[in-house]
Amino acid sequence: MKLYTCLRIGVSFSVLLVVFYFYSIKILNNKDDVSVEESHKVTKSLEVTTDRIEFKRNDIVLAVVACGDRLQETLNMLKSALIFSKEKLNFIVFAEDNLIESFNQKLSEWKTLTNHAFTYKVMALTFPVKDAEEWKRLFKPCAAQRLFLPNILKDVDSLLYMDTDTLFLTPVENIWSYFHKMNSSQMAALAPEHEDPNVGWYNRFAKHPFYGKLGVNSGVMLMNLTRMRAFQWSEYVVPIYRKYKLKITWGDQDIINIIFHYHPGKLYLYSCRFNFRPDHCMYMSVCKPAEKFGVAVVHGSRGFFHSEKQPVFQAIYRAFEEFRLGGDVFKDFYQPLEAFLEQVQNTNCGHIKDIFLKNVRLYINMEDTS
Ligand SMILES: *[C@@H]1O[C@H](CO)[C@@H](O)[C@H](O)[C@H]1NC(C)=O
Ligand SMILES: *[C@@H]1O[C@H](CO)[C@@H](O)[C@H](O)[C@H]1NC(C)=O
């Protein structure tokens, strides 16, 4: 009798377990159906992304998307992040298939050199939508990838997205700290596209809505993916693209501008010193916060890291390129940078060269924090 009761309980329990198992699978599947509505055609690379990325809630995650000839430039940006940061960094690099191996090689070498100061993951490009090929080609190669990060990186709470043509002149954690300045409705932080309406692009030329008076530049973007998922960010991306396709000039950046035009309360606007571009100094110095607190991130947009036209930007890029991780930041980075900048101090951006050195000096304790 007792044995029979035990058996009965056992059997019922197993049946319950099985039912529960199938039920959970169903819930999980439904959840996916909702968030990736258009996932009928999933690119082959999606498989790569299904391994869980184990990040903890407060980890600093830096993401970048690299295609075409952007390998060296991207590595230079990642190097600049490693030079100044004291916190452990976690890199996610989305790369075109033919670049994946080179990234893996260099980053694993750097990991040894820096005594495991960071973790990294190199992933294939993934577009969880129909027309993946069209999205890949939109604007500069692969820039549209970033619009889908909330869907692809389901296990990541927040990240700092960097264009490949950017360089840190301050520890990453200084920018990350802006997450704590956002209020509960803000899901991203960006810098304005311009400071001055007389030379602004969006206010003079755009044929579509954009954020605020002068639009935003998307090159250095704090993204709270948890909030973007709750907002159902990617549900906005595809319809907006369809509607404005023929009117957008700067690809993904325009789409971001259109979304925040309609939802301005969801964006935190930080200063131009977090995304300092040639426009800020090529005619006159218009980014006042940079004069006061120094440039935090320099952005060599439109190829200016590699062009004779903006020697200051080229000089900064070169100083990072020639520095070897593990070297002496003062002797092997700061001093050469200072020397390169002195050589170009008679150019447009050269007369304010100290704004590029200020944060580096802080890092090596050459300057008072006051
Ligand atoms: C992102 O938003 C979620 C939900 O509001 C919040 O719990 C989390 O702390 C935020 N992440 C960061 C880095 O601020
Ligand atoms: C957050 O700040 C934005 C911009 O100042 C504002 O529009 C929004 O209402 C604020 N949200 C909350 C919850 O305070």
From TrEMBL:
It is found in: Membrane. It is an enzyme of class 2 (transferase). The chain crosses the membrane at residues 7-25. It is a single-pass type II membrane protein. GO terms for biological process: protein O-linked glycosylation via N-acetyl-galactosamine. Pfam families: Glyco_transf_8. Keywords: Glycoprotein, Glycosyltransferase, Membrane, Signal-anchor, Transferase, Transmembrane, Transmembrane helix. Its EC number is 2.4.2.42. Its main location: membrane. This is UDP-D-xylose:beta-D-glucoside alpha-1,3-D-xylosyltransferase. The lineage of its organism: Eukaryota, Metazoa, Ecdysozoa, Arthropoda, Hexapoda.
